[in-house]
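Bug report (template v2)

What were you trying to do?
Predict the complex of my protein with guanosine-5'-diphosphate.

What happened?
Run completed; filing so the output is reviewed.

Input:
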Amino acid sequence: MQKTLSIIKPDGVSKKLIGEVIRRFESNGLKIAALKMKKLSKTEAEGFYYVHRERPFFGELVEFMISGPVVLMVLEAPDAIKQNRELMGATDPAEAKEGTIRKQWAENKQNNIVHGSDSEESASFEIGYFFSGIEIF
Ligand code: GDP
């Protein structure tokens, strides 16, 4: 079994899409192994997106991620990382495939409803960043 971190970003929470997004995961074989709601501090968001610190949109991305509460989840499935990324769709909704979460609900490249780990290495870092072992079922 593989685990990945999913985040319903502040835009997904404010658009009342928590249920819709979780439905997508559960009906496509991704088990919810952990879940919590949290308003990230600036330091927490900066640390989470540390790999993007040199990118021109870093400051804007951090401000967006702390603009409201997020839903943090650990998803589990045999191929969870890839499967979650497929359900999410491309970063830019204009390039996302029909039927994906971002195609259906994302506004633009930044306000794109969900985050999903992109490799085993980042999944391990990201899960450990937000969850302790006893919070994962
Ligand atoms: P992801 O793995 O599909 O989420 O995409 P990336 O790892 O490339 O980028 C991380 C996040 O940064 C994205 O999900 C967006 O919220 C944001 N982002 C990516 N590209 C841009 C951009 O060109 N401008 C802005 N403002 N945000 C971006």
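What did the reviewer find?
Residues 2-132 form a domain with the Alpha-Beta Plaits fold (CATH 3.30.70.141). The chain has a mean pLDDT of 98.
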